[in-house]
Amino acid sequence: MTEFSVLDDGTHWQQDFERRLLASYTAAGFTQAAAERVLEGVRAGIGDWTIAEITDAGVRVGYVAVVVADNNGALAGRIGDLHIDAPHTGRGHEQAARDWAERWCAERGARRLSIRLTEPAGALFDGYGVRGQLRTRHIDAPPKALAGVTARPMTPAEYPDWLASEKAAYVGDIVRSGALGRTEAVRKSDRDFAELIPQGLATPDHTFLVLEAQGEQIGTGWLKHRYLPGVTFGYALYIQEQHRGKGYGRAAMAAGEQATLEAGDTTLMFNVWGGNEVAMNLYTSAGYHVVEETRSTGLPPSAA
User: Fold this and answer.
1) Burial code of 83-97, b = ≥16 C-beta within 10 A, e = fewer?
2) What residue stretches are annotated with the N-acetyltransferase domain (predicted)?
3) Mean pLDDT across 56-75
4) Are strands 74-84 and 129-138 parallel, antiparallel or unpaired?
5) How many helices and strands, by DSSP H and E, does the chain display?
6) What percentage of residues in the chain have a pLDDT greater than 90?
7) 23, 135, 177, 273: which sits with the fewest CB atoms below 10 Å from its CB?
8) Distance CA 267, CA 225 (A)
9) Is 138 exposed, middle or buried (0-12, 13-18, 19+ CB in 10 A)?
C-alpha cells in the first residue's frame, strides 16, 4: 500500500532531486556551468515546498513535492517533484502520488495544478494540458543557410512596429496555452518586455534580426546571448504568415544558430507555448530536444 509522510527535514530529498536535475540538464546538452545556473534558480524557490516521502510496507520508494501559492490573484498548486525509484516503478505508486498531490493542493484552495517534467512520465500526465516546452540544441558547426535568405540587424525605424507585434503575439501565446486570461496576459506582456529589453535595440547581449528573401522582409528574430553560460535564448524567430510553407522557418532557425555562434555561445534554446504544434514539429525536425515540459490541469473544489 502506498503511503505518504510529510518530512520535517528534506535534505536527503533535495540532494537526490538536485542530482537528477543536473543529470537531465547535462543530458540535454547544457554545459555543467549552465546546468548549475539553472539549478540555482530552482534551488531558490524550493524553500516553500512541502516534501512527502512515499513508502510501501515501510520501504521508501520515492518522493513527491508540492506547493500552493498566489498566481496572478488566484491560488495555484504545483508538483515540484514526483519521483519513484527505479526498482519500484510500474506498481501504481506514480498514480497514487499524483492523486495525493492533487488532493493536497485542492485542500489548500488551489484551482489549478501544474508540473514541470524533466524526466519521462509515461502516460501519467497525459490528461494535463501542455502549457509550454523548453527546447535546446547544441550547435556543432555553422548552419547551412537557405539560398536566397539573408539576415540583417533591425533598424531603429523598424523597432516600434516589431515591438508592438511581438507583445501582441506573446499575449496570444499565453492565452492560447491556457496559462492566463487576456487581461492578465497583457499585463504580463508589458511587464516582461520592460524587464527584458529596457534599452530597446541598445539592450546589451541582445540580437534583433530582420530576415529577407528576394529583397522582401519575410520575418524577424530576437535572441539573448549568454542567457546561461554558453547558451543563447531565442525569444522569437518569426516568419510572416504569407511567407510560411516555403522552408523559411528552418532558415530563421539557421540565422539564430549563426548569431549564437557569432556571439560565442554553442547552444540555442527556445520556449514553445502549448498549442503551437507547428513550432513544436519544426523544432523536433531540426533536432531540438525537450529539456522541460510544463503541463497543468484544473482542480475541483475540495470537499474538506
Assistant:
1) bbeeebeeeebbebb
2) 149-304
3) 92
4) unpaired
5) 7, 12
6) 74
7) 23
8) 10
9) middle
The DSSP result for 152-170, as a single string, is: EEPPTTTHHHHHHHHHHHH
How confident is the model at residue 304, as a pLDDT? Answer: 52
d(CA 252, CA 226): 20
Q: List helix spans (H) across the chain.
A: 11-27, 32-45, 93-107, 159-177, 182-196, 248-262, 277-285
User: pTM of this prediction?
Assistant: 0.84
Q: Average the pLDDT over 281-287 and give the result.
A: 89
Reading the block at residue 267, the C-alpha cell is 547552444
In angstroms, the first-to-last Cα distance of the chain is 23
CA pair distance 23, 170, nearest whole angstrom: 31
Residues in the chain: 304
For residue 248, is it left (φ>0), alpha (ψ between -120 and 50) or beta? alpha
235: Cβ contacts below 8 Å, ≥ 6 apart: 166, 196, 222, 223, 224
Residues 127, 93 contacting (CB under 8 angstroms):
no
Interhelix angle 159-177/182-196, rounded to 10 degrees, is 130
State whether the Cα torsion 110-74-192-187 is positive or negative. positive
Q: The cell 520575418 sits on which residue?
A: 219
Q: Which tens digit of pLDDT belongs to each residue from 70-105?
A: 887 789 999 999 999 999 999 999 999 999 999 999
To 10 degrees, the CA torsion angle through 192, 298, 89, 3? 110
Domains of the chain: 2-129 (3.40.630.30), 140-265 (3.40.630.30)
pLDDT in tens, 239-280: 998 998 888 888 899 999 999 999 999 999 999 988 888 888
Is residue 131 within 8 A of residue 296, CB to CB? The reply is yes
Q: Which sign does the torsion angle of CA 103, 180, 231, 283 carry?
A: positive
